[in-house]
Specification:
alpha+beta; T-fold; eight-stranded antiparallel sheet; four-stranded antiparallel sheet; 17 strands; globular
Amino acid sequence: MHREQNKSQQYHAQVRFLFHATVKIKIPVAYSVLLLDDLFSIMESVDYQYNSYRKNSYFDLINRSAGSFVEVDDFTIFLLNKIKEVASFFDGLYDISIMPLLRLWGFYQSGENRRLPSQEELQAALQKIDFRKIELEGNKVRIQKGQELTTGSFLKAFAVDRVVKELKRAGVSDALINAGGSTIRYLNDESHPFWDIRVYDPDVREQLLFGLKLSNGCFSTSAQKETRIVIDGKEYGHILNPKTGFPAANKQVGIVGKNAFEGDMLSTALMNVPSEQWKPLLKQLDERWGVSGFVIDENRKITFSDNFNENMTTE
């Protein structure tokens, strides 16, 4: 959640439902409210062209043509190259070919027949998950038969970054895009030097953990609280570990970075990293991607990167 630090500033604000999330965009009233239509049109275009759940999108065509090459556009190639870079850094702890595992756990079926997957079923699904088998040749893409890609961990964030690019082109230097609370991208200028972000307990929704004062960047979060299934009375989160086949143990990850696309991928990947490995790993991530962050592990212990407290407040 967020609130404005500059009480005197007036904004146009509009909310729409995209990427299975409520997206809110705020711009100063000095700009035409019609700009909001243009910004949401950019997000809608990304949704229709690249969302793996949209029929005839590029990623849908890749999935339906598994085993054969499919011609795509430059943005699809750009996305896949960046995705493979992050997946390689984490040695497969982040992998967008995880869709067969999500289906196995029942995240895309009604709750009536959900059950724990057997070890044999898990192993069969895990055999299909391997980002290295996503082949790129020029503007053509091929995945292996049995593979299926999901855009859920990055596409909304990519669309948010496209909106920010348009805002900058239009001369807007003070704005906020909140996409479902998990992707918050913000612009700031001298009249409004920061946005105030509030971070809440993943288990107790109304309990404030700490505040953040952030400027010209993105706050990305991943958590098991938003999308869950219940099997035999026990809840299981939707972020799955591509190595083990089971839901990630960590409860929540927060990343402060330069853009949403990278931030959302990194926060998803870090959900699968044990908290004791976090500090040295985040130092590497800071050097490579310029990010800071925190993790709340399965025991509710919070680990911060060394530079994260620069952004923190008690409000």
